[in-house]
Write a structure and sequence with these properties.
The chain has about 300 residues and is mainly alpha-helical. It has one domain. It is built from ten helices and no strands. Helix 2 packs parallel to helix 5, helix 5 crosses helix 6 and helix 5 packs across helix 7.
């Protein structure tokens, strides 16, 4: 089986656009958390807590960048075999964490603002360090998830530092959008935004899953269904513009193994519907809250 790392490298634009989209999505998600904390501190007339919030955010951002750099460039100091093995394992871990976070956020979105405000109330009472900790954990959770996702994405596109640059550009865009939201200059339908970007992340994660499986098959750690499921090289040119985009963003290859195909289909077939179902209104809760003489909507 051909090494997944030895495959064609997507263009600089593709590497940065794919990671930039991830940065916008994850950055806006973290930005909303920061916006809630800042707005609550301001409305509570506790502007003294703002510096602790921003220190927590800065620490979380440093954690994200540091995690990416340590794993990404630490792998360059080890043997190619160990690097590919590390890439495969990191990819599978990233898929697990991202899947859990996407599904959790889908269900928790309705009450996350209330949870943050409750936590901020306790933190303001406890002091600055508690506020720092709340901001760091709230944003750091997103940052650590993003760092692992980006390590796997960067490995799959063989892009070195460029995916990180694209991610940072996406985060800057998310920061601007968050500021505009805070100032009331723009309005975003968050339910629609996170629905579409959530599905986008799921498809990206499915591609990273197949990349991780391919890496582990290359080093002999997954000696299962290694045969080529199909070879579309005769009509699918991975060096053409569409091949570069699909390969760079979603890790689509013309000659996947059977295990990669099965894993990709199974992942989307399970996580996609689960994500969709978790976004549906809780009809049982609505029924319990409806007046006894009126049917639930």
């Amino acid at each position: 089986m051909t090494s997944v790392i030895a495959q064609g490298t997507p263009s600089v634009i593709t590497q940065m656009v794919g990671s930039g989209l991830i940065g916008v999505r994850e950055g806006l998600e973290a930005g909303i958390v920061v916006m809630v904390l800042v707005a609550f501190a301001v409305k509570s007339d506790r502007r003294d807590a703002l510096r602790w919030i921003w220190l927590g955010v800065a620490a979380a951002l440093a954690l994200m960048i540091g995690t990416f750099l340590i794993i990404q460039f630490g792998s360059s100091t080890i043997s190619p075999f160990a690097a590919e093995l590390l890439a495969g394992i990191a990819s599978l871990i990233a898929v697990g964490i991202v899947t859990g976070m996407v599904l959790w956020m889908r269900q928790a979105a309705a009450h996350i603002s209330g949870d943050l405000k409750s936590g901020m109330t306790a933190a303001l009472t406890a002091g600055g360090v508690a506020v720092f900790g709340l901001a760091f954990l709230a944003v750091g959770r997103e940052g650590f998830e993003t760092a692992l996702l980006m390590v796997s994405y960067a490995e799959s596109v063989s892009g070195g530092i460029r995916p990180l640059l694209g991610l940072l550009i996406g985060i800057v865009i998310a920061v601007v959008l968050t500021w505009l939201l805070y100032r009331g200059a723009i309005a975003i339908d968050f339910r629609t935004f996170f629905t579409y970007t959530g599905f986008f992340l799921i498809v990206v994660a499915a591609g990273i899953l197949t990349y991780g499986i391919g890496a582990l098959q290359t080093v002999g750690w997954l000696p299962l269904l290694e045969g080529t499921a199909f070879n579309a090289s005769s009509w699918y040119d991975q060096n053409a513009w569409y091949g570069v985009i699909l390969g760079g963003v979603f890790n689509v290859r013309p000659d996947p193994s059977w295990l990669q195909v099965i894993a990709w289909v199974a992942y989307l077939g399970v996580v996609g519907p689960l994500f969709a179902v978790r976004g549906l209104p809780d009809r049982s809760a609505a029924s319990r809250s409806a007046p006894a003489d009126e049917p639930a909507a």
